[in-house]
Specification:
Layout: E1 3-8, H1 12-21, E2 29-34, H2 37-46, E3 51-55, H3 63-73, E4 79-83, H4 88-96, E5 101-104, H5 109-123, E6 127-132, H6 134-144, E7 148-154, E8 160-166, E9 169-175, H7 181-188, E10 193-198, H8 212-241, H9 247-250, H10 289-302, E11 308-313, H11 318-330, E12 339-341, E13 348-352, E14 358-362, H12 368-376
Parallel strand pairs: 1-2, 1-3, 3-4, 4-5
Antiparallel strand pairs: 6-10, 7-8, 7-10, 8-9, 11-14, 12-13, 13-14
Helix pairs in contact: 2-3, 7-8
């Protein structure tokens, strides 16, 4: 994935010179030009940018305004300052505003290229993963309590997104036109993504309320609903295009007269068959063996003190169980048996794989560790 570098300067000759001089580095990064601060802000809103190189002294919207906008809306984007008016005070102000580098005019194009490549390399020093499910990987971030900034590219839609984690906690998320929880829900619905990991988190404020698992579950629910709507829409289109069946195709009687049955002389005609219609097959009730076994097992171990509210089977949890099983395989862990979910509701959930996922709702004050150990034995 080629990184995009936004260069902002009101000097048109400078922009043309940089565009020509940096062309030989197009395998490392691509260049987007902006002739003033407002143009830079517009391009930041419209295009995923990995690095900004900006002049400070510009008419109308100057470099400090651009820097301030980036710190507020795109704190993950590093900024390199270029100026012909370098002073210790300007350098201090720009660094306080979030700039990571500084270069004075006049400079060699290759020197700027070296700074750009070094900054981009540092940004991606955490590594890159391709063709993974974001949900599975992000649960690892939570478990490992990592602080990092994760850039994502959805290969199916071409969308870009950014996630911010501090000590394993999701603080904020951004896509091209969304921010916060809405952006996270959108990102978590992506199946085939490239992840770039930067091993630090530039923001401190938590803008997304709720646990990561709860948001992942919500995203999966929305994704399934959207898939169902798409299937229904496709079925409606197909039905509209299909011509109506003729009576013959529908198995309805035609207007032709039925042939008379031949009658043997001296014998009465055969009575029409009066065989009873076939009985409808009885619907098979879902197997309750697993739920009953668990009910007996927990009652024997805990009596009335288990904190268990209900045990039932629910197919809507199957996609999440599938994700857990896939994650276990990635980690080379033992077979997945049980998961405990606290999603901020009045009850917590214990999930176990079966033909339909077994769901055990429990009181949050239940003996969680003992319950899980009993269920895994």
């Amino acid at each position: 994935m080629i990184k995009k570098v936004l260069i902002v300067d009101d000097d048109q000759e400078m922009l043309l010179s940089l565009n020509d001089g940096l062309e030989k580095y197009n395998e490392s990064f691509s260049i987007i030009m902006a002739h003033d601060g407002q143009s830079a802000i517009d391009k930041l809103k419209a295009t995923p940018i990995s690095l900004v190189v900006t002049d400070l002294k510009m008419p109308k919207v100057n470099g400090f305004a651009v820097l301030s906008f980036i710190m507020e809306h795109y704190p993950e984007i590093p900024v390199i300052i270029i100026t012909a008016y370098g002073t210790p005070d300007l350098e201090k102000r720009s660094q306080e505003g979030g700039a990571v580098g500084w270069i004075e005019k006049p400079f060699m194009v290759d020197d700027l290229a070296k700074k750009i490549i070094t900054t981009l390399r540092k940004e991606s020093e955490g590594g890159t993963l391709h063709g993974v499910s974001s949900g599975m990987f992000l649960q690892l971030i939570e478990v490992e309590q990592k602080s990092c900034t994760i850039r994502l590219l959805d290969k199916n839609s071409g969308q870009n997104g950014v996630l911010f984690f501090k000590d394993g906690e999701l603080l904020d998320a951004r896509t091209n036109n969304l921010q916060g929880k809405d952006a996270a829900l959108d990102i978590f619905s992506w199946d085939n993504v490239t992840l770039s990991i930067q091993n630090d988190c530039p923001i401190q404020e938590k803008k997304i309320q709720g646990e990561l698992q709860a948001i992942l579950l919500d995203a999966m629910r929305i994704k399934d609903e959207n898939k169902q709507k798409l299937k229904e829409a496709e079925a409606s289109k197909l039905a509209a295009k299909t011509p109506p069946k003729t009576p013959m195709e529908q198995g309805e009687p035609t207007h032709a007269k039925p042939a008379k049955e031949a009658v043997t002389p001296g014998l009465a005609p055969k009575e029409p068959s009066k065989e009873p219609p076939p009985k409808p097959k009885e619907e098979q009730a879902p197997s309750r063996a697993m739920t009953e076994i668990l009910r007996v097992k927990l009652n024997k171990e805990f009596g009335t003190r288990s904190g268990v509210i209900d045990i039932y089977q629910d197919k809507s949890w199957d996609p999440l169980i599938k994700k857990f099983i896939e994650l276990n395989k990635i980690l080379n862990a033992k077979d997945f048996k049980v998961a405990y979910l606290d999603i901020g509701q009045a009850s917590d959930f214990i999930l176990m794989p079966d033909k339909s996922t077994v769901v055990i709702t429990v009181n949050p004050k239940s003996p969680k560790d003992r319950l899980l150990q009993t269920l895994m034995d």
